[in-house]
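Anyone up for a design puzzle?
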């Protein structure tokens, strides 16, 4: 994970066009904690999570990351680990991934009360995700317009910063690992299938 973070941090210094939105300083710490946070969250989920949700979690984590070719329409479901409950797997919603014109993609969850939109920037081992989560009609601001050092939700829409690692395990399966989300849970996984 540290090599992934180092590439994300070095890219703005090298002015690589593919990195549309560099992680904000508070989000870098969240990315660096991805492996440790996921381990703690999984321990709780497997100890106390509902059996049917554990089956979804197991499917979401199965498979090694491979080449990225994520453009298109997806079904996506959010899994929340830790926080209020050890594990909750929500039903499927619609997501779309489209090329961003700079060598990456834009990921958008287009249905459900909780939405998200952000960029996927190819990196070694997957893609860096920088985006926002929000409720109601739309995000208050884009990721790159969030206050640089503040993690407080922005109104309207309770817009929050999201950062993570996107991995594609095959042509019809992918996952977005979101460490230390700012609301509700300790770790989120967006599981994408088509």
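Challenge accepted. My sequence:
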């Amino acid at each position: 994970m540290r090599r992934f973070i180092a590439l994300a941090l070095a890219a703005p210094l090298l002015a690589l066009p593919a990195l549309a939105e560099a992680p904000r300083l508070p989000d870098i710490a969240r990315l660096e904690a991805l492996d440790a946070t996921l381990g703690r969250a999984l321990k709780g989920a497997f100890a106390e999570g509902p059996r049917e949700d554990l089956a979804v979690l197991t499917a979401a984590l199965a498979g090694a990351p491979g080449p990225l070719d994520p453009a298109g329409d997806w079904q996506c479901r959010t899994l929340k680990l830790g926080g209020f409950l050890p594990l909750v797997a929500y039903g499927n919603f619609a997501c779309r991934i489209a090329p961003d014109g700079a060598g990456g993609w834009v990921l958008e969850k287009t249905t459900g009360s909780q939405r998200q939109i952000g960029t996927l920037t190819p990196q070694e081992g997957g893609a860096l995700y920088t985006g926002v989560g929000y409720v109601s009609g739309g995000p208050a601001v884009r990721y790159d317009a969030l206050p640089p050092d503040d993690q407080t939700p922005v109104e309207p829409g309770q817009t929050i910063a999201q950062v993570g690692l996107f991995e594609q395990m095959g042509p019809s399966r992918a996952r977005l690992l979101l460490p230390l989300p700012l609301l509700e849970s300790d770790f989120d996984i967006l599981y994408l299938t088509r």
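A detail worth pointing out: The chain has four helices and nine strands.
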